[in-house]
Specification:
It contains nine helices and six strands. By secondary structure, the chain is mostly helical. The protein binds zinc ion. Zinc ion binds next to loops.
């Protein structure tokens, strides 16, 4: 069903003959435009033209790479499923709206037909022609719209069902997109947290170092502490606590 929707969207914009693009383009991987041209069996310029037209509707997106030697860009393309479905959804909504107004018109207005030429006119135009065909001179007959309306309602029904399916698929795609976004956000948040933690740890270490040098400056280093070098973090803390305790005792 997904593939049918994508074919419909692409076919509507760039013609049925280019629907095979659906089989060439991928969702998660960019495809080289020269490969696309080769597979479609058309010129590269024609291929680009088609892809640009699809870009205007968000159906495809691209990235480019510069050829270091030749200095020109090669484009790589992928299909945008969610955007394609949204495009088709709007198209279907419009078709349903049009079909509804056509049905309403058929149900409420009169239409006349020349049975020889098989040409149809609405009431105003038929009246202007005095209900006589200006091609063959035959008199118009009132058109029976029963079959037309029945066919239109069938078409309307199929559009509505298609829209229902499409909404389901669109919902699934959006959920996938949200999940991806969520994963990216979580990753970014995790990286930021780690960055903050690293900064905090670094600052703490710098403070400790600074505190250590200040003490050295204010106090003459005792023979004991200089002998203890290098000092571990934990032992440094303990010793400083002991020192402060000793100070208060002296007082
Ligand atoms: Zn006629």
């Amino acid at each position: 069903m997904q593939e049918k929707f994508l074919r419909d969207a692409i076919g509507y914009i760039v013609g049925k003959q280019n629907e095979p693009l659906v089989d060439i383009l991928q969702k998660d991987k960019y495809i080289n435009e020269f490969l696309i041209a080769k597979k479609l069996n058309i010129e590269i310029n024609q291929t680009r033209n088609i892809l640009y037209r699809l870009t205007e509707h968000g159906i495809v997106s691209s990235t480019r790479k510069k050829d270091a030697k030749k200095g020109w860009y090669t484009y790589f393309w992928k299909i945008e499923i969610t955007k394609s479905f949204e495009f088709l959804k709007n198209l279907l909504i419009k078709r349903i709206h049009d079909m509804n107004s056509q049905i309403k018109s058929r149900e409420t207005k009169l239409f006349y037909i020349c049975e020889t030429c098989n040409v149809e006119h609405n009431e105003e135009n038929a009246l202007l022609n005095n209900f006589i065909c200006n091609e063959c001179g035959n008199v118009y007959v009132l058109k029976d719209n029963t079959k037309v309306i029945r066919d239109m309602k069938k078409e309307l029904d199929s559009h509505e069902r298609e829209l229902e399916y499409l909404n389901l698929e669109l919902g699934k795609e959006k959920a996938k997109d949200d999940h991806k976004k969520d994963l990216v956000m979580k990753k970014v948040a995790k990286e930021k947290l780690e960055e903050r933690q690293a900064k905090y740890a670094k600052r703490k270490l710098e403070k400790q170092k600074l505190a250590g040098t200040l003490k050295k400056d204010s106090k003459k280093p005792s023979k004991k502490s200089s002998a203890k070098k290098p000092v571990k973090k934990s032992s440094q803390k303990k010793s400083s606590k002991k020192q402060s305790k000793a100070k208060t005792k002296k007082k």
